[in-house]
Amino acid sequence: MSPEEFRQYGKQVVDWIADYLGSVEKHPVRAQVRPGDVRAMLPAHPPEQGEPYEQVLADMDRVILPGVTHWQHPSFFAYFPANASGPGILGDLLSSGLGVQGMVWATSPACTELETVVVDWLAELLGLPAHFRTDSAGGGVIQDSASSAALVAVLAALHRTGTDGRRTIYVSSQTHSALEKAGRITGLVAGDVRTVDVHPETLEMDPARLRALIEEDVAAGVTPALVCATIGTTSTTAIDPVRAIGEICREHGIWLHIDAAYAGVAAVCPDLRWINDGVAEYADSYATNPHKWLLTNFDCGVLWVADRKPMIDALSILPEFLRNAASESGEVIDYRDWQVPLGRRFRALKLWSVIRWYGAEGLREHVRTGIALADRFAELVAADPDFELRAHHPFGLVCFRPLRTDALELMERVNASGKLYLSHTKVGDEVWLRLAIGAPATTAAHVDAAWAALQAAGRRISPGRR
Amino acid sequence: MSPEEFRQYGKQVVDWIADYLGSVEKHPVRAQVRPGDVRAMLPAHPPEQGEPYEQVLADMDRVILPGVTHWQHPSFFAYFPANASGPGILGDLLSSGLGVQGMVWATSPACTELETVVVDWLAELLGLPAHFRTDSAGGGVIQDSASSAALVAVLAALHRTGTDGRRTIYVSSQTHSALEKAGRITGLVAGDVRTVDVHPETLEMDPARLRALIEEDVAAGVTPALVCATIGTTSTTAIDPVRAIGEICREHGIWLHIDAAYAGVAAVCPDLRWINDGVAEYADSYATNPHKWLLTNFDCGVLWVADRKPMIDALSILPEFLRNAASESGEVIDYRDWQVPLGRRFRALKLWSVIRWYGAEGLREHVRTGIALADRFAELVAADPDFELRAHHPFGLVCFRPLRTDALELMERVNASGKLYLSHTKVGDEVWLRLAIGAPATTAAHVDAAWAALQAAGRRISPGRR
Prior knowledge:
The structure is a homodimer. Chain A is of the alpha/beta class. Chain A is 42% helix and 12% strand.
């Protein structure tokens, strides 16, 4: 495709996306297709001759859109949001257009240096400590996800223990499954990912139980490597007591990783910085995902470390073909040693685009809007005696449950309607519904309509309700 | 940013990229900046207020482009190509515009099902065996890179051994460092990634040495888990004897992973399918990267497995919030269990765009052009007694060295000129230069100019040369 053909088709694709974004509400939120439906509409074999790009765009409407669950729909409330935004899309487009691969500084210095600048910017925007900045012994890096960030933290922590003997890592029952997966990937055997009890109401990790487990393990000759504390758990946005956990970690020389994948970006609002209490003093690593609630297209997760050395020592292997003068000078960062894969896209462009377009003010406004809408929804739930509201944390997630209707049946009914999409979790044996607000297109009207749809569905399932 | 603002700025960005692609030759191939130059041009702090997008585009010209090493430049010959193409960029743009996250089938069925279709298409285009198709016990998946594909293969292989005891994996001195990294990540200790000797001339893994090592390890009570054979090594595009290696793996029940990251896509040409001899009979997994030589923007690596079960067993963890009826029906693929991270972009769109725009014919033509240009360059080298040509494989990489000049000095001189960019490797103690052809914009004129620049630089360094 020549540059001029790209110019022509590129504008058609931009129009297609602008039309899509402007009309996303006309689609059912959750795809209505059944397994195999999309595949059945596609040719079984690849084309022998090339096709005009118009045919791809026609198939986007005919084949792809009906099979898409619309994460940018204003009534998408399932999981946490995966925000896209105009500047996020454009930053990704610039990255694709340049087509550079920034595995080491020398293969595109701007890819590395813009990344150090924007992760430092983000650390400042979130009020994170100076030792997470890249001009310190620590630094930040963009990963594809908080799963990968957790894996890197576990690898650094295991390396830092300086032993190949039995090591353990500590999570709670509320910790994201990515930590268990990281444990499994890094070769920990079953039981070495230790689950600490949580407070039965708040679902926060119990520091006394953590201490007891660690002391038990140390006495048994095991080396505790890492504790993961979560700020805003996936299930209910619970906040682990980072300071108390951090003190225990410090006593025992254990790596403290903070998984703030969803909620961390809320600290763009100074009045929410308290969620990070203890991070500056105790955290060895901290992960949050601008691709969740900060308007930056997936994938863009940021990992900061207080000391980059154990991470680089754990991950660096230098084959001859990557040797170069800049790396050997020690003056540059080679981000390949800060991640699992070798290759890397120029992801900093999208975060840069987003921060510049919205500014700190715009980012705060976006987070505050989501929180205000969640508060609005929580008030609606609280006022209905047929529903129970779960005490909630100051983010965009509301957990609630119907008292006279099966929660999963209610959820399936509204999700199947295509009007909104929400998800569920379990606390003990109780099923709770999760309504996560945070898409930039969501307004009070969408929240009110979601509530009306839930109430109506509840009444249809259990006509005896008030 | 509203849809209408996106429409407006999106077209500006498309114009910017079209202009860039149309004029990429005016830039020095390798960035001419020094460490810190890019950073110094950027503000130390994020903006408080948002900025017009025009300012981002202006900074693309002012700050970013001077710091970019231009991977799409027709005279970029370092590393393997990381091809971008118009339809690749547009497919990525469509993915960004939709902003879906396809961690499980239910979160966007089209994301999963288009992926199964395009990886099946690619398997057909490359003549890979039917048991790699997703309608078999095996299947294909898009990973970010061959590093991650190798890590997944190692995890599946380790899981399949059914033991937590000492396991080993086997590579050669020519295997990509990603395998050593995968070994380290998965908790293998030093020495458990075993290096098999290669033939001193061809640099192919020696099956007799492989067999001896395996038998030695088995006798010592170790469980051999995986052998990685490479089709087209990074250093010199050597091709390991897959069939002979496969027979040994079969005898001992060892997982055979094929790393064909760069060269695998050459099999779009039927006359090159011999490079995969033995794959159909013996390979448990096979990885190749359309993002290298097949016109699909980074990141797009494809991993196929002959049996998906050990991979899924190794990687699947199901938290409550991801439970859904479709997954429980067993009728769908949840690609989160085929990779390390949980979240995933809609990467199939770019591979789909590329295959449809070029068609099988266009893809073959692209590969053949690269090979013909490499042959042309090799002939030029062979005709000059001041240079030595290394016997080369039928791909786009030419390895050669100057006989009267220091190879690294020659390389640094031409790279610093900005006229072309090449890299080096070592075979034993000998330094060889690597010139990898494969960018779609590269023509015979660029290859001839590269050769002229190398000859001239050689003459300047060693005026006594003929």
